[in-house]
Amino acid sequence: MSLRFRCERDTLVEALGAAGRAVTTRGGALPVLAGVRLELIGDHLTVTGSDLDLTITVDVEVAGAEDGVAVLPSKLISDVVRSLRPGAVDLSIEDDDARVVQAPAEFSIRVIPADEFPELSAADGDAVTLDARAFCAAIDQVEKAASSDDARPILTGVLMAAEEQGLRLVSTDSYRLSVRDLDGTAILGEGQKVLVPSRALKELSRVVGEAETITLRLGERDASFDVGSVSITTRLIEGDFPNYRGLIPSNHPNTLTVSRDALLDAVRRVRLLAQESTPVRLAMSATGLELVAVTQDVGQAHESVEATYHGEDLTVAFNPEYLIDGIEVAPGDEITLETVDELKPALLKSADDPAFLYLLMPVRVS
Hints:
Elements: E1 2-8, H1 9-20, E2 35-41, E3 44-50, E4 54-61, E5 63-66, E6 68-73, H2 74-83, E7 88-94, E8 97-102, E9 105-110, E10 127-131, H3 132-142, E11 157-163, E12 166-172, E13 176-183, E14 193-197, H4 198-207, E15 213-218, E16 222-227, E17 230-235, E18 254-259, H5 260-271, E19 280-285, E20 288-295, E21 299-305, E22 307-310, E23 314-318, H6 320-329, E24 334-339, E25 346-350, E26 353-360
Antiparallel strand pairs: 1-5, 1-7, 2-3, 2-6, 3-4, 4-17, 7-8, 8-9, 10-15, 11-12, 11-14, 12-13, 13-26, 15-16, 16-17, 18-22, 18-24, 19-20, 19-23, 20-21, 24-25, 25-26
């Protein structure tokens, strides 16, 4: 096994970091999946990390000296290269050792047998081009509401479904639900839907940068997203997403309209006194909005926020983190909070963008 090339440190750090985010962190997995695979052909270096569910591949132009393939421990090689000064780095592999040299520093790292790295295939569907900015904005609005609990894999995904107007993204962790419509974006056939792991979409959002387009390919069991020099392939989640439409109340008698930034700042302040899983209470009346948080033996916080309210006086309590997540991703300067009573789901919307909604379950308080 041999391989030799020279590359700028910052370029290599970026490639190793991006591919390394797909590397497995699970105990009991194949040891080779804790490594990144480097393949050099001419001046073209391909860096790949995978845990078999998610694969990230980065293409880099380098000064190649000897073609080859090698697998290196992901975290260690990333840390080593990042520790060097900006400038050229020489990496060479002979037999079982990788040498990383930037005089006067020199490192020798044991490699992982490359033939143990699994064969990985990309999704084979037709290529569809997406507007990178609009698609990533939609991802940011829904991925936080997806669950991180692998015991319920269906809820760790984002539903991508064909709608009459275009594409709909939906996520829920059973405590909140986020829906974003992308009108005019047609990537699925009529009635078609797929469940994409939120982790893969989060990584996609992270690598988009200044790119203008994303190329999507949907296979039967996989989806791949190409953006610039990075390719992200993920296994789709199998199973039926919950019937979320039945969760969205059709009639809300109470409506609060408030400045998005003013509410966000106030909730962040009051949350400081909402400790030990204490909710933040929103007291809504014709005079406006008051936020209250009380934690026994710690203290309490109150803050009034200018707002317009139509409906009966009502106090509703929410998990402050979930409430902040929804306010942060709501588009526009003003948001509305529509409620039925203190126990039924509340709807948080943008006052001027009907393509987004965030449904939040209240917290029962005595």
